[in-house]
Amino acid sequence: MQDLKEQLIEVFGESHLVEAFGELTLMVDSQEIIKTCLKLRDFFSFETLIDLCGVDYLTYGQSDWNGNASASGFSRGRNHQGSKDRHEQRFAVVYHLLSVSKNKRIRVKSFVDEAEPIIKSVTDIWASADWYEREAFDLMGILFENHTDLRRILTDYGFKGHPLRKDFPMIGEVEMRYDEDLGRVVYEKVSIEPNINVPRVIRK
Q1: Quick count: other Cβ atoms within 10 Å of Cβ 5?
Q2: Taking the model in full, what pTM does it have?
Q3: What would the pLDDT profile of 34-60 be if each residue is shown by its tens digit?
């Protein structure tokens, strides 16, 4: 990994590289993502994209638990994060790359604008990005420019909102089922009582 680290610093600069927990993360400006990914594929032999996801840093480092849980429940079982690690930008796109030929891995992270979370698609570089980008669009609301088929992949076509955003409501207002008489899916008001489970903390 040390050899890879030195090569990455030589090409991208030391300020863009973060090393933690034995892993390397390359921080990239969203406008430079295509240029950077091409270099990683062609010159560093990262020929495989094994994962792509969106990250929501809303409330990161600010609060322990934002659910409707009691103060004696979940929050007692973990350390307070404080506010020192708060991110200025809310959304990031994270790419996990693998070099099969050199048996090396790297993480690439690029922050996008909260008001218009748009970044260029890398499907022309790695075909495997197709469904990953659709998932990040569906669940996080991140738009991938030049993606040829950017539509929801896990939620229903008429679904509103993005379920993995931290400000998405934890309790839904509608439920869906297939109606045999109508021959289609119908939406109805939630029929179950709202309940948020609090993980049990066992102390000695």
Answers
A1: 14
A2: 0.78
A3: 999 999 999 999 999 999 999 999 988
